[in-house]
Amino acid sequence: MQLYWTWLLQWVPLWVAPNTITILGLAINLLTTLVLISYCPTATEEAPYWTYLLCALGLFIYQSLDAIDGKQARRTNSCSPLGELFDHGCDSLSTVFMAVGASIAVRLGTHPDWLFFCCFIGMFMFYCAHWQTYVSGVLRFGKVDVTEVQIALVIVFALSAFGGSTVWDYMGTSVLSPGLHIGLIIILAVMIYKKSATNMFEKHPCLYTLMFGCVFAKVTQKLVIAHMTKSELYLQDTVFFGPGLLFLDQYFNNFVDEYIVLWIAMVISSFDMMIYFSALCLQISRHFHLNIFKISCHQAPEQVQVLSSKSHQNNMD
């Protein structure tokens, strides 16, 4: 995006203050989001297509102006702590409106728990980024960070505009949920592997793989059941507790030895998977009156129906 931002900066007069650029971008983002909120106050309604396009355009303009305000400050030699405070203060407010707008675009109001999670996780991550800055003195950016998230939200708004927000009702159960499951497992596995202070995967590859294998096995079982029963697939699952322990241990700089936490995570994940699978098999066997480890002598319902009709015909003869 640097080429685009550099080109855009050329069109900004030198007399325009950086804070003016910042507040203009924020105002456009807030205005477009408020229009969308007015049509969807409970995040369950479907707004006119142009409101989603307006939000996509407003967010893109905000992202563009937010990216060049610092360039304008350096260009005009007007960098100051006030400008930094003004920029991040506007970003903190915009984060709230972006989370709400994106939730409306995918009709998350139909799933209040998800709405709560998605809105507050965005605010929490923004706070954590500045908490890290406060502790370390440096504002760090990753390969996938704010700009990538903003572009992704622009795409979400565009999809809702052209496909209607109800398209997410179908995609959420048939496409996104399974993808989120396996995506979450892979993301956790990679993050823990990369952040390990003791090269945990190289030292204990089998234990590490088995732990995540149990997580994968359970979510796959859930996917199979969701397919068989044509039911909704929920992302929340207790099997993620094990990987979560590893993640938190690394977040707090290996407060407990990683090898011990890995064993605990392995035990938790394996037991969770086995308990779920056992309960699932028992529930199915009881429902269909089947024996799990023995061949059932019961005839299939269609066979019983055929035999009954034949018996009835013989009696009539």
From TrEMBL:
It catalyses: 1,2-dioctanoyl-sn-glycerol + CDP-choline = 1,2-dioctanoyl-sn-glycero-3-phosphocholine + CMP + H(+); 1-hexadecanoyl-2-(9Z-octadecenoyl)-sn-glycerol + CDP-choline = 1-hexadecanoyl-2-(9Z-octadecenoyl)-sn-glycero-3-phosphocholine + CMP + H(+); 1-hexadecanoyl-2-(4Z,7Z,10Z,13Z,16Z,19Z-docosahexaenoyl)-sn-glycerol + CDP-choline = 1-hexadecanoyl-2-(4Z,7Z,10Z,13Z,16Z,19Z-docosahexaenoyl)-sn-glycero-3-phosphocholine + CMP + H(+); 1-octadecanoyl-2-(5Z,8Z,11Z,14Z-eicosatetraenoyl)-sn-glycerol + CDP-choline = 1-octadecanoyl-2-(5Z,8Z,11Z,14Z-eicosatetraenoyl)-sn-glycero-3-phosphocholine + CMP + H(+). The chain crosses the membrane at residues 12-37, 114-139, 151-168, 174-193, 260-282. The keyword Nucleus does not apply. Its EC number is 2.7.8.2. Keywords: Golgi apparatus, Lipid biosynthesis, Lipid metabolism, Magnesium, Manganese, Membrane, Metal-binding, Phospholipid biosynthesis, Phospholipid metabolism, Transferase, Transmembrane, Transmembrane helix. Pfam families: CDP-OH_P_transf. It is found in: Golgi apparatus membrane. InterPro entries: CDP-OH_P_trans (IPR000462), CDP-OH_PTrfase_TM_dom (IPR043130), CDP_ALCOHOL_P_TRANSF_CS (IPR048254), CHOPT (IPR014472). Its cofactor is Mg(2+); Mn(2+). Its main location: Golgi. Belongs to the CDP-alcohol phosphatidyltransferase class-I family. This is Cholinephosphotransferase 1. It comes from Galeopterus variegatus. The gene is CHPT1.
